[in-house]
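Hello,

Our lab assistant flagged a job as stuck in the queue for most of the afternoon. It eventually completed. Since we weren't sure the result was trustworthy after the delay, we are filing this so someone can double-check. Below is the sequence as submitted and the structure that was eventually returned. Let us know if re-running is recommended.
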Amino acid sequence: MTSTRILIVEDDPIARGNMRDMLERAGFDCLEAEDGRVGLAIARAEKPVLVLMDMTLPHLDGVSAIAHLKQDP
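-- returned structure --
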């Protein structure tokens, strides 16, 4: 098992839950966000090794959120 943190940013709670369940069964620690702004804040605070980002999200779409993360050292 690993303690690798993965952030799942997905506005569909069923899809997000399915991804979380699958990843946790594989031994990953999961963080979750329901929109782009929350996902961006969690990514900056928690620094996960991987972000699974939906492209169409409320408040801040996935493409813009990733662009913000790429600019943040």
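-- support follow-up --
The delay was a queue issue, not a problem with the job. The result is valid. The first strand starts at residue 5 and ends at 9. The chain has a mean pLDDT of 93.
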